[in-house]
């Protein structure tokens, strides 16, 4: 079975506390977007085999492990162990989502493996957050208010069909380092996540006013600021970093203007593409 599996952005992302186990309490609005990896899963008699097709521009910023360290491999192992199954699978991943971008590129692959295995075997799993905090969201997709470490997911009004430019420079962000910097912030300005949820539910055309990301105050990357500046210059309604970085998304009213912005960013050697917000994580290919 082969699927396209979506990336996500955080329309808002706030950190509201730190838990005794070292994890952080989050408050966020997650949104799947039409930027995809392709994941193919085939059942075999035993073992887990993983192969990856990674563009050079992604591999150079963050080498992606193509072995048992990969979260997609871990997802297959998790699925088989939880269901007491002694078979195996062959997984192939074709990367289209940049790594170290804050877009859930690894978690969406893991969710796709769980989805494919579930469709092929009729089995399910619970506690998918044990694989990664973003995995449960990708099993839901769409637009959602997310709390806790990412496991508390409340779907909200559909925000699909909005035009975006997604861009990323060469610099990546270590999630661990980003959270350490968050812990060091003094009197930070928090995003108005609840106002964003209310706007999406009742006045979606005004939602962009409440986009925001606390991590922008903790992660200082010149490329992020440069990309945001260019997006606003080319008439984005809002431009915000996603996740703990380092990708940036800009919201546009006009697809032609978005295409112009993306081309200008590519001329500066940034990864940039035009896409839309989407309602589902997975698109079956075959």
From TrEMBL:
The protein's enzyme class: transferase
Annotated active site: 8, 134
Protein name (Swiss-Prot/TrEMBL): 4-diphosphocytidyl-2-C-methyl-D-erythritol kinase
Keywords: ATP-binding, Isoprene biosynthesis, Kinase, Nucleotide-binding, Transferase
Family, as annotated: Belongs to the GHMP kinase family. IspE subfamily.
Occurrences of domain GHMP kinase N-terminal (ranges): 70-139
Domain GHMP kinase C-terminal, first and last residues per copy: 216-268
Gene Ontology terms: biological process: isopentenyl diphosphate biosynthetic process, methylerythritol 4-phosphate pathway; terpenoid biosynthetic process
MF terms in GO: 4-(cytidine 5'-diphospho)-2-C-methyl-D-erythritol kinase activity; ATP binding
E.C. numbers: 2.7.1.148
Gene source species: Ruminococcus flavefaciens
Pathway: Isoprenoid biosynthesis; isopentenyl diphosphate biosynthesis via DXP pathway; isopentenyl diphosphate from 1-deoxy-D-xylulose 5-phosphate: step 3/6
InterPro entries attached to this UniProt entry: GHMP_kinase_C_dom (IPR013750), GHMP_kinase_C_sf (IPR036554), GHMP_kinase_N_dom (IPR006204), IspE (IPR004424), Ribosomal_Su5_D2-typ_SF (IPR020568), Ribsml_uS5_D2-typ_fold_subgr (IPR014721)
Any single Pfam family the record assigns to this protein: GHMP_kinases_C
Record's function text: Catalyzes the phosphorylation of the position 2 hydroxy group of 4-diphosphocytidyl-2C-methyl-D-erythritol.
Catalysed reactions, as listed in the record: 4-CDP-2-C-methyl-D-erythritol + ATP = 4-CDP-2-C-methyl-D-erythritol 2-phosphate + ADP + H(+)
Organism lineage: Bacteria, Bacillati, Bacillota, Clostridia, Eubacteriales
Record: residues binding ATP: 98-108
